[in-house]
Amino acid sequence: MAKSGKELDTQSVVAFTVLKRAVELDSESRYQQAFVCYQEGIDLLMQVLRGTKDDTKKCNLRKQITGYMDRAEILKKYLDQEKEDGKYHEQIKIEENATGFSYESLFQKYLNETVTEVWIQDPYIRQIHQLYNFLRFCEMLIKKPCKVKTIHLLTSLDEGSGKQQQSSGLQEIKESLQNHGVLLELEYSSSIHDREIRFNNGWMIKIGRGLDYFKKPQSRFSLGYCDFDLRPCHETTVDIFHNKHTKKYDG
C-alpha cells in the first residue's frame, strides 16, 4: 500500500537523523559505527524515494543517496583494508552514568551468522551480579544471528566464601547452554588480569571493566533493572580490534 505524504515526511526525517549521526561519527573517525549508520540511513532514504511521486524531489533524493553511498563505499574499502592488515582499532569511551550501552547495543555490530565460537577472558565472574552479567551475555549470543556452538570462559576462582556460589552458578549456566546446543568450556587462572572478548569472525573487544560496567540499580522497580540500555554505567573504555587470524588464548 502506498504511503501518504505525511508518512513519507516522517520517514524522511528519521532517515536524515540517522545519516546526520553517520556524518558525526565519520568526523570523529568512528568509521565502523559511521558505516553502519550510513547503511541504515541509505536504506530508509531508498524507501522514501520509492514512495515519492514528485520528479524534482526524486531527483534531489537520488543525488543525496548517491553522495552518501559514495562515502559509505570509501569507508567500506578503508575498513576492509584495515581488517586485512590487522590494523583496525576503534575506541569507545563510556562516560560515568551514561546509558544506552547494553551488551546488545555494544556488540551487535560485530555479531553475524559466521560467529560460531567465542572466547571470554574476565577475572571477575564471581559474584551474583557478575554471574548474571555473564548469563545476559550468553543470552545475547543465543538470540543474535550468530550460530554459536562453543563459548570459552577463562576467569579466576573465588577462593573465599563465594566459591560454592560461583561454581554452582557457572554449572547451571553450562547446563542451560547445553540445552540450546552450546558447549561452555570453563577454565580458571589465578594470574589473569586482562579482560577481552574474541569472536571467531576476527573481532576482539577489550573493555576496561570487563562485563561488569553497569551500576547497581536504585531499586528492584527502577528503570534499568531489566533493560540494560537504561542502566547507568561506570566510566570505562572499550577498544575494538579486528584480526583475521583470531586464535585461542595462550595457556
UniProtKB/TrEMBL annotation:
It is a peripheral membrane protein. It comes from the Eukaryota. The keyword Transport applies. It is found in: Endosome membrane; Late endosome membrane; Midbody. This is MIT domain-containing protein 1. It comes from Ailuropoda melanoleuca. GO terms for molecular function: identical protein binding; phosphatidylinositol binding; protein domain specific binding. Homodimer. Interacts (via MIT domain) with CHMP1A, CHMP1B, CHMP2A and IST1. Keywords: Cell cycle, Cell division, Endosome, Membrane, Transport. Its main location: membrane. Signal peptide: none annotated. GO terms for biological process: midbody abscission. SUPFAM superfamilies: MIT domain.
